[in-house]
Structure prediction request, 264 residues.
Amino acid sequence: VKIKFQFQFLYMGNQIPTLNGGSAPRTSYTAAMASVTRLEKRELMILREKWMGSMRISGHPTSITRDEFGRGIEEAAIADTDIEVLDRLFVMFDKMGDGFVNVREVTAALAALSTGTDMIKLHLALELYDINKTQKARAPEILFVLDAINNIAYWFGDPALSPEDLHAVVDDVYDAVTVTKDGYAQFDDLIPTILNHHLVSTFLQADASAIDGEGHTVGGGGGGTTIPSHQIKNTSTMSNTHTGVDDDASSITAPTVPPSTDRR
Prediction:
């Protein structure tokens, strides 16, 4: 799969928001895309509702087809400049190559392409996942959301947490927060605990400067910037091989999760 994005890099300088709301000299392809797309909370919520509507009509419990994906984008009146990005992302999230993507996975991951601090993005990702508006989640669900965000960074060629680190983060977080008898914790407790976890904060504070095919660092100066096709992972044969997290959060048993064999 050859994927090439061209865009004007709008961040003047390399100050990318960090988890704690500050900024650090960190440049990444994901952050670069977030600076030029118009996929904010309003657009992502509309997309989720359109795609969920397609699921209800088709009777499929978790996923939509390529046609349903495109129809939702059209009905949501997404900007033309973002349609190509979403079209490319369908290929990435169709990890089994069967023409289906998981709606909650896609929408949670797309929060990474919105603007704002990492705290705002994580909160949006959880909101998008939380279709029943409960403001709480169990450990497998948090693992599912973090994995979706982690995968989009990985596919764009940015540094990503290892499967072991993702599981360690979730285990430590649920050891630290108040958990109900049925395994739920509140978003308000989960978000700051995740953001302050040493693995997460160390990872995000690291220098993640991305180098393009000609040896130039993305984010320097103005003008057009090209994300080289070799930096976008070939996902046509991937089945969550990076993180090993099942595509249906309801079937995840943390902390040990078998790789998915059926993404639907």
In short: The beta strands are 5-8, 15-17, 23-25, 63-65, 100-102, 136-138, 184-186, 224-227. Residues 1-26, 207-244, 250-264 have pLDDT under 50 and may be disordered.
